[in-house]
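Please decode residue identities from the backbone states below.
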């Protein structure tokens, strides 16, 4: 694994990386890469759970999805409509995948995500109701 040095260019790769054009970590202060847990490899298609689960992402498609999600969040925020950044990026990644054809999109994974969008707030509401009731009984 290459070493990343925090310096004036914010991203200084060691000699081997510079020579062979290997991937580097995301630019940032030294603690950022340690807390992040792994390096961002912009030469591979591994762009995290969304990139592996919904459709394959390369650098251009990942950037396009991020920008589209940001624009969608900004647009709906201007209108005063509450939006989820997570849902926005999922939609953007699906859009990039659909550009390459429906067969490139993992419909099963999308179904799991949609189920999670329904189940999670419902479960959180039920947990909140129960916890509040228990706390009121304890506190009085």
């Amino acid at each position: 694994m290459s070493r990343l040095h925090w310096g004036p260019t914010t991203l200084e790769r060691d000699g081997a990386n510079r020579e062979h054009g290997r991937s580097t970590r995301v630019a940032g202060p030294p603690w950022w890469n340690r807390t992040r847990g792994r390096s961002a490899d912009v030469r591979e298609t591994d762009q995290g759970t969304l990139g592996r689960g919904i459709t394959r992402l390369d650098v251009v498609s990942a950037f396009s999805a991020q920008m589209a999600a940001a624009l969608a969040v900004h647009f709906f925020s201007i209108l005063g409509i509450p939006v989820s950044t997570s849902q926005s990026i999922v939609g953007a990644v699906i859009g990039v995948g659909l550009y390459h054809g429906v067969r490139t999109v993992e419909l099963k994974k999308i179904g799991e995500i949609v189920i999670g969008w329904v189940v999670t707030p419902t479960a959180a509401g039920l947990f909140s109701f129960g916890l509040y009731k228990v706390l009121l009984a304890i506190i009085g």
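Observation: Residues 31 and 37 are 10 Å apart (CA to CA).
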